[in-house]
Amino acid sequence: MSTTLNIGILNLMHDKVDTQKRFSHVLTQTDLPVAITYFYPVTHYRGRVVPETVAQISQPLDLSLIPQFDGFIVTGAPLEKLPFTAVTYHQELAQLFDCLRAQQLEQLYVCWGAMAALNHFYGIEKQLLPRKLFGIYPQKILQAASLLQGLQNGFLAPHARYAEMNAKQINANPALALTAVSTTDALFLVENRAAHQHFVFSHLEYGQQALQKEYQRELAAAPQQKATLAKPQHYFKNDAAMTDPVFAWQATQQHFFKNWLHIVMAKKVGGL
């Protein structure tokens, strides 16, 4: 049996090239050999031509290929303000979720991907936040978790979202474990270990410049909202000038993705 880990990633982010670079970076910085295959949702491009950049770096999602993977990641997407059923590829995503559950792959759902998966599997409801959660925040560990090995209370993580999942519903579900939150109780990590499901609400794949790029993208899209647009907090050395972003979550990033890959490897070689 090959010891190379085959990881599939459904890339739902708007900045697909940057997102692919980020995940490829964080997944290849460990001591484990990894082969990554990137997918895009077919139904998102129904009736129109798939952009050349998307077609060049990824392939159409094909559920028949899922059994070949050892682990699978569903990325975030800037869709928090939409109902799940209003997303163009909602049904395709639901079919993927069911396939991943049936195959019992190690699953990592990120930010909006985590929201959509929690809603699909467990009916957890999404709630819009009064203001975007945006910046670098300390986290607190509520329960021991393999994904958090090497991290201590107060570890730093980037958050960037307009919505949150209902924590009361999560805590009321015996299948789910809320293992870490921010010091202001924003969700960080939810797990169903028996189902090999991990839901992380932080964009830990983000590199040093990513939050700044996200702010600039939103500003370019709505320059008239500059006065009220959320700015990344606890991120810049010079907040007033919004310069010199600090990569304060780098250690968290390294530990988290290394831990996840080791979980994937343990299942691959041990059949856990």
TrEMBL record:
GO terms for biological process: cysteine biosynthetic process from serine. Keywords: Acyltransferase, Amino-acid biosynthesis, Cysteine biosynthesis, Cytoplasm, Transferase. Substrate binds at residues 132, 217. Pathway: Amino-acid biosynthesis; L-cysteine biosynthesis; L-cysteine from L-serine: step 1/2. Its EC number is 2.3.1.30. GO terms for cellular component: cytoplasm. Its main location: cytoplasm. It is found in: Cytoplasm. InterPro entries: Class_I_gatase-like, MetA_family. The record marks 80 as: Important for acyl-CoA specificity. The active site is at residues 111, 203, 205. GO terms for molecular function: homoserine O-succinyltransferase activity; serine O-acetyltransferase activity. It comes from the Bacteria. It catalyses: L-serine + acetyl-CoA = O-acetyl-L-serine + CoA. CDD domains: GATase1_HTS. The record marks 160 as: Important for substrate specificity. Gene3D superfamilies: 3.40.50.880. HAMAP family: MetA_acyltransf. Belongs to the MetA family. Transfers an acetyl group from acetyl-CoA to L-serine, forming acetyl-L-serine. PANTHER family: HOMOSERINE O-SUCCINYLTRANSFERASE (PTHR20919). This is Serine O-acetyltransferase. The lineage of its organism: Bacteria, Bacillati, Bacillota, Bacilli, Lactobacillales.
